[in-house]
Design a protein that fits this description.
Blueprint: E1 2-5, E2 11-15, H1 21-27, H2 31-37, E3 48-52, E4 55-63, E5 75-82, H3 91-106, E6 111-116, H4 121-129, E7 133-134, E8 142-147
Parallel strand pairs: 5-6
Antiparallel strand pairs: 1-2, 2-3, 3-4, 4-5, 6-8, 7-8
């Protein structure tokens, strides 16, 4: 998909999930995953895996689910997760930026949103670093949008 440099000089890359990735994605779930994202799928299949060098460090995903009644026309909801041992290196914002570039270039979507628990300080920082604009809260969650047209 795409590359972007990390603080430690390694390139952050997004790639499609491969055979065997589901087990790694499930094994990496920790208390933070469950607190912010819930139980998770028994068969995760994100849009892309986040890779640094050759190491799988997390995932990014998007959807335009009919259950997300807060989404506007042409808007997708973005989700992401970085494994505990790789947090704090800036991988999540770089992966979100790469996903936004992909969406702008390769899809009909025109905007993205983040719906974040107000206590999830790390994800709130991702929204800020990626230039998302805060909107009215949705169901007690912080709601951010960013256009890419």
């Amino acid at each position: 998909m795409s590359r972007r440099q990390s603080r430690d000089g390694g390139a952050v890359t997004l790639r499609p999930p491969r055979a065997g990735d589901s087990a790694v994605l499930i094994a990496a779930r920790d208390d933070a995953f469950h607190r912010w994202l819930g139980p998770g799928s028994d068969n995760p299949n994100p849009t892309a895996c986040i890779v640094v060098g050759e190491q799988l460090v997390g995932w990014v995903d998007y959807d335009h689910d009919a259950d997300h009644d807060w989404l506007g026309d042409g808007e997708v909801n973005i989700g992401y997760f970085v494994f505990a041992e790789y947090r704090g290196n800036g991988y999540a914002p770089r992966a979100v930026e790469l996903l936004l570039q992909h969406l702008a270039r390769d899809t009909q979507y025109t905007a993205a949103s983040l719906l974040i628990d107000p206590q999830n300080e790390a994800s709130l920082a991702v929204a800020e670093r990626c230039g998302f604009e805060r909107q009215d809260d949705v169901r007690g969650q912080r709601y951010f949008t960013r256009s890419f047209t």
